């Protein structure tokens, strides 16, 4: 049972049944499933919740429908029914056992509105809607996929999913969940999965053709680690469409740039404001990291429905002093340069770099921007219509900033991040200038 005391009076309780397995409905392929080098570096758990409410349907059959459709979906996405293991080369692969993910049914002692109200003050409360195996000591002991269906007293329900990022990037995860919803509604798959990841194998012999500064280990000459000993504060900053338009206009001032995207302008703003708020030394190297979807940038393009990680980390490097003193257009230009880096040859070089070095991206002096703004996370429909709320669970790591869509049209954005209290106050001043 998960519980949390809220506002001194109400205590949230979520009663969870014992987990069971959901194997694929039909026999699926067994043996080892190849994971490419783009999968290897992101073996972290993504936790997402989807909230549904339909006054006509209630939630009586929710768990049954979600469970039965999952069993059918796993026939198409059979690697998700296996478990992670280590290959003879020391890399992650999937042992396709067909055992299926863990599935948990749960009940909350409140309405969904009450829960969302509590979560606005304490986002960690939402962790109660996602099942995590107690006592798992490492990524091999942690299931690659779990599902929890939680019913609320008002007739709403939540589908909470924990999935290892090495199995899917955001685009693949969305396509899988949308396919699962189509099956629940008795529809054929609009995008059948393409499961062959060997198309992204390293070259033989590997060829490193570019500097891969995403792995560069930066010296912390600003002693920011001391700041992070302060109490952490987590906030979400709203950017409505009018504010985003003003930000892009600011990026185009002076005529240096002819165009820029919302992502480029917002990333530049956050990168610069964060450097200022952490009081970085002018000579401090600072690195920006973000993922670029490589599906259409590979030559040939990845097949439609490619299931896996088709994203590549790109980077920009700059001294903090230059970042803070340069015109805003220059910072946006650095972000644009990082996007332009990502070509077929760059991505093949990144794949080969991992083959030779087995390196992990270093996070010293680094900001990692994760944008969910382009993903249709609100659309999975199990027969109860679109979600009334969708989002990640938990709070961002200290180097991570999260862009989440908000509002009815999903075109406004919320910028989520955590910082030491003193730094957060400066950050807020900086980005409120727009």
Automatic annotation (TrEMBL):
<dbReference type="GO" id="GO:0016747">
    <property type="term" value="F:acyltransferase activity, transferring groups other than amino-acyl groups"/>
</dbReference>
<dbReference type="InterPro" id="IPR023213">
    <property type="entry name" value="CAT-like_dom_sf"/>
</dbReference>
<comment type="similarity">
    <text>Belongs to the plant acyltransferase family.</text>
</comment>
<keyword id="KW-0808">Transferase</keyword>
<dbReference type="GO" id="GO:0047672">
    <property type="term" value="F:anthranilate N-benzoyltransferase activity"/>
</dbReference>
<dbReference type="GO" id="GO:0009813">
    <property type="term" value="P:flavonoid biosynthetic process"/>
</dbReference>
<protein>
    <submittedName>
        <fullName>Omega-hydroxypalmitate O-feruloyl transferase</fullName>
    </submittedName>
</protein>
<dbReference type="InterPro" id="IPR050317">
    <property type="entry name" value="Plant_Fungal_Acyltransferase"/>
</dbReference>
<dbReference type="Pfam" id="PF02458">
    <property type="entry name" value="Transferase"/>
</dbReference>
């Amino acid at each position: 049972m998960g519980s949390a005391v809220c506002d001194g009076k109400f205590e949230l309780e979520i009663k969870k049944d014992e987990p069971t397995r959901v194997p694929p409905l039909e026999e699926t392929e067994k043996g080892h499933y190849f994971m490419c080098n783009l999968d290897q570096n992101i073996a972290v758990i993504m936790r997402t919740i989807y909230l549904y409410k339909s006054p006509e349907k209630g939630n009586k059959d929710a768990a049954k429908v979600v469970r039965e459709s999952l069993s059918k979906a796993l026939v198409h996405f059979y690697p998700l029914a296996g478990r992670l293991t280590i290959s003879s080369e020391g890399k992650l692969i999937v042992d396709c056992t067909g055992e299926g993910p863990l599935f948990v049914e749960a009940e909350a002692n409140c309405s969904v509105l009450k829960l969302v109200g509590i979560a606005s003050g304490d986002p960690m409360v939402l962790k109660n809607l996602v099942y995590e195996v107690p006592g798992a000591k490492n990524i091999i002991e942690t299931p690659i996929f779990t599902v929890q269906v939680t019913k609320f007293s008002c007739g709403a329900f939540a589908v909470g999913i924990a999935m290892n990022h090495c199995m899917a990037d955001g685009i693949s995860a969305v396509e899988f969940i949308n396919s699962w919803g189509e099956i629940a509604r008795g529809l054929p798959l609009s995008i059948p999965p393409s499961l062959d990841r060997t198309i992204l194998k390293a070259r033989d012999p590997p060829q490193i053709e570019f500097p891969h500064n995403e792995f560069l280990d930066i010296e912390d000459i600003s002693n920011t680690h001391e700041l992070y000993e302060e109490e952490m504060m987590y906030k979400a900053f709203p950017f409505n469409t009018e504010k985003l338009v003003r930000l892009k206009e600011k990026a185009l001032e002076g005529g240096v740039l002819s165009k820029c995207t919302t992502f480029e302008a917002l990333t530049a703003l956050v990168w610069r404001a964060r450097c200022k708020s952490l009081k970085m030394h002018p000579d401090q190297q600072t690195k920006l990291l973000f993922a670029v979807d490589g599906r259409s940038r590979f030559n040939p393009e990845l097949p439609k429905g490619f299931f896996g990680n088709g994203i590549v980390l790109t980077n920009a490097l700059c001294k903090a002093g230059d970042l803070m003193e340069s015109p805003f257009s220059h910072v946006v230009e650095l972000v644009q340069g990082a996007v332009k880096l990502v070509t077929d040859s760059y991505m093949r070089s990144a794949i080969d770099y991992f083959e030779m070095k087995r390196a992990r991206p270093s996070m010293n002096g680094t900001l990692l921007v994760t944008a969910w703004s382009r993903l249709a996370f609100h659309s999975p429909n199990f027969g109860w219509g679109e979600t009334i709320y969708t989002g990640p669970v938990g709070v961002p790591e200290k180097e991570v900033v999260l862009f989440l869509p908000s509002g009815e049209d999903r075109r406004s954005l919320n910028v989520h991040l955590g910082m030491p209290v003193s730094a957060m106050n400066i950050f807020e001043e900086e980005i409120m200038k727009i």
